[in-house]
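General statements about sequence and structure are easier to judge against a single worked case. Part of our work consisted of pairing the sequence of a single chain with a tokenised description of its backbone. The amino acid sequence and the backbone structure tokens for this protein are reproduced below.

***
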Amino acid sequence: MVKGLVLALERYRLRRYDAIAMTKAAACPISYETVDHNASRVTCILTIVALAAISAMAVLWPGLGTIALILAAALTLDYAIRAWTRYPSPMQSLARGFARAFGIPEKRSDAAPKRFACRIGFFFALGTVALLPVAPRIAVMVAGALLFFNVLDGVFDFCVGCWMYSTFLLPRGTDA
């Protein structure tokens, strides 16, 4: 009986793997990795809160400029972890915890477009960190652009970096 159960589970796993592989191959021929789309949107919402805090501290309360710089550097590091490693960043871990706590269902999507979007976001965050000590108002404008893109993704479910990836980079990587 145990052997029959093991064989049935193995057949299910293989069928499930084939279905997932077929879906992934049809969606993104470059990468077969997936991420939780809904947790990614929660990450965007947490990023919105961080960027709003950075902007408020930099412009409204100039005495908190050092704290804004530290928060912007932490956000840049978080983007770097998301963009160039396979490990979850602190903000991703926090978002995944929030998603589970609020009962948001897991929805898988391709990781490559999200990773590309994170790389673009990293450079916006790096620009914010670089400009904050010398030109805080310009840094807030750069942070505002990043905040706008995170609002589009987190609230309206439109990832501009993902759209750029599938419009400009994906056709180059396919043979069609």
Notes: The mean pLDDT is 85. Residues 36-168 form one domain. Strands lie at 34-36, 108-110.
